[in-house]
Amino acid sequence: MVRRAPPRRSLQSVLKKYKPQLRLSKDIHIMVHLNCLLFLHRLALEARTKAVESKSSTIQPKHVKEVAKVVLKKSRG
Questions:
Q1: What confidence tens digit (pLDDT) does each residue in 18-44 have?
Q2: Which of 16, 14, 17, 75 is nearest to 45 (CA)?
Q3: Do the Cβ atoms of 6 and 33 come closer than 8 Å?
């Protein structure tokens, strides 16, 4: 398992580019990184479920594409 710190400066620059009016704490990069990981985990679980439904032993790109819209809608909050 690779343990790397989330890219702090690049995440802050992207957030500032799209939302310059936001005041961000110094540790915001950890929360953004965690949210990205949780989103990918949820996407993988849904894709795995779709693969099992289609009687496939591996997750294929078509499975991810089929569940991506549903997971994005659930993640918007």
A1: 989 988 888 888 888 888 889 999 999
A2: 75
A3: yes
